[in-house]
Amino acid sequence: MKVLVDCHGADAGVQVAVEGALDALNERKSLSVVLCGKKQDIDKCLEGKTYDKERLEIKEAGEPITNDDAPALAIRRKKDSSMVLGLRALAAGEADAMVSAGNTGSLLVGTQVIVKLIEGATRATLASVVPTIKDTHTIIVDSGANVDCRPEMLEEFAVMGDVYMRNIFGIERPTVGLLSNGAEEEKGTPAIKEAHALLKNGGLNFVGNIEARDVLTGAVDVLVTDGFAGNVAIKACEGMGKAMFVLIKEGIMQGGLKAKIGYLLLKNVFRGVKKRVSSDEVGGGVFLGANKIVIKTHGASNAFSYKKSILNADRLAEKNVVGQIAEGLRKVKE
Amino acid sequence: MKVLVDCHGADAGVQVAVEGALDALNERKSLSVVLCGKKQDIDKCLEGKTYDKERLEIKEAGEPITNDDAPALAIRRKKDSSMVLGLRALAAGEADAMVSAGNTGSLLVGTQVIVKLIEGATRATLASVVPTIKDTHTIIVDSGANVDCRPEMLEEFAVMGDVYMRNIFGIERPTVGLLSNGAEEEKGTPAIKEAHALLKNGGLNFVGNIEARDVLTGAVDVLVTDGFAGNVAIKACEGMGKAMFVLIKEGIMQGGLKAKIGYLLLKNVFRGVKKRVSSDEVGGGVFLGANKIVIKTHGASNAFSYKKSILNADRLAEKNVVGQIAEGLRKVKE
User: Fold this and answer.
1) A chain contacts of residue B276, beta-carbon cutoff 8 Å
2) pTM to 2 decimals?
3) Coil, strand, or helix at residue B205?
4) Is the ipTM beyond the 0.95 threshold?
5) Nearest residue, CB atoms, A216 vs list B144, B192, B239
6) What residue in A sits closest to B258 (Cα-Cα)?
C-alpha cells in the first residue's frame, strides 16, 4: 500500500513527519510513502538518512494550512498546501491512505469535499481508538469532528465503528454503547434518546447507554457519541490522567526521603501506566465514511506517533475498511 | 439554621443519613436537623446514641421514592414520601435547607414544583464543586440535572455559579468559563456559541471557552455547561481516576518485591491523592435557582458525605445564597 504523509501541521515541524515515515518504511517492507510538503524542508530532513529510495516519493507543496486558518476557507484558498495536494492525490487514486497532523476542521472538510463520502454516509466521523484497563480497545465515534449530530448520523457512526472493530481487532460481534448521562434508556438529550431507539431496533450488538465513567473500562467495543461529548469525554480523561500524576508528584515531593525512595522503586510502574494511557500507541484518529482512509494524528505528534499512524493507515487500507463500511451502510439503509 | 434530612435514598440505607446528621449536630452547635423518613427506621438508628435532643426532630414519612421511580410521576404519586414531605416543609418555611441522596430527577422536579424557583430563574441547576490541582475549587453548573439547555439558561447558570463562588469561597471576581470542544470562540454546538456571545457581552468575568482537559486544573472558578456535557466531564474524570489506580495497582502486582516495597513507602501519598480527588470532601451538589437551598448528596453516600452535605447546606442558608442569586438574576434581566 502507498500512504501519503502531510509533512506540515505538527507542532514539532516537518522533521517528526519525515522521521516517522522513514521508521515506518524500515518496519514494513510492503509500504511506500509519499511525503507531501515543502521540498527543501523535506530534503533537509532526509539528508544523511538511509532508506529504500524506491519506496519514497516527494510531492512538492506550497504554503501549508495552519491552525489559525478558518477550516473551510483554507481548503478553498490554499490550493497548493500539502493538505489539499495530498487529499487531491488520494482522491485521484495516487495513494491508498493519508496521514496528517494538520488543522482538524480543514482535514474534515477537505476529506468530505475532495476525497468525498461513501454512498450512504452523511458525514465522515473522526474515530479514535482508546486503550482500556482490560487491555482491550474501545473505538469512540465521533471523537471530536462533528459536534452537532442527528440521530441517523449517530447510527451511521455505530455501523462504521462496528466494521472497524471487526476488521482491525478481529472482534466477531462488537458490543456497541451510546454515551449518555445515565445508563437508563430514558436518559439523554432528545437526539441521544432517538439514536437509542434506532440502535435498539437495528442489527448491531447494541447494549444500551454507557456513562462516561466507563469510557476506559472496556464496557463496550464501540462507543457512539456526538463529537462534542466525545471530545469532552476524551479530554476530561486526558486532564484527569495528568492531574493524577501532578498530585502524586506533589505528594512525593512533600513526603520526604521515604516517599522519594518509594518513587524510585515504582518509577517503572509509573512509566508503564503513562505508556498505557498514552494516545501515541494507537496511531491517531481515523476519518471513517470517506472514500479513502484519512488519519488525523495529533498536533503534538512526535516521530513515533507518525510511524504508528502511517502503519495504521497502511493496515486499514490493506484490510479494505472503506469497502467494508460501504457494505455496512448499504445494509442499514436497506 | 435548621436543615431537613431526607433519610431515604442512599444505597447504604437510613443509617448513614442518621449518623451523618448526628455528626453534623455534634460539630456545629448552631445547627438543628429534621430527620424525615420512616420513624421506626430512624428510631432504630438513634438507639443508644448521644445527641442534643433539643436540636433534632423527626418528621414521619411513608413509602420512599426510589431510583426506579419515574421522576415527575413519583413526586405526584408518592405524596407522603420523605422527599415530598421534606420539600413541602421546606417550602412552608419549617426549615432553611434540605439534603437528600434520593432520585436526582425527582429531587429536581420536586424542588422546582414544590419549593419553586426564584423570580428570573428558568430552571434550578445542579451545581457541583470540584477540587482542583491548584488546591482551589471550581463550581460546575450544570453538573447533570438539565441535559438540554438554551443559551439563556447557561447564562443564568453562570450568574448562580458566580454568586456561589463569591459568597462561599470569598472570591472577589470569579473567572467564568464555558465548556466547549475547543478554546476558540467559534467552537461548540449552536447553543454553546450563542451562550458564548451572551457571556462575552454580559457583566461577569468571562474568560472564554474551556476544554474538558482543564476541568481540574483550576483554569476557572465557574465552569458553565449543560447537564449532559457536565455529567460526561465529571464522570469521565471519575472513571479515569479509578482507571489510573487500577493500572498502578496492576503494575505493582507485576513488579515484584521492589514494586511492593515502593508501594508501602508511597501508601500515604496514594491515600492523599485519593482523598484529594474524592467528591465526599465538598458536600454534595446544590440545586441553585430555587427559593431554598436543596442539596443532592450522591447515592453512594456514607455518614461522612451526609455530614459534609448537611454542614454545607447550613452554611449556604446562613450566607443567604438564595437571596444573593435572586439579586444577581435581577441585575442580568435588567
Assistant:
1) 247
2) 0.91
3) strand
4) no
5) B239
6) A265
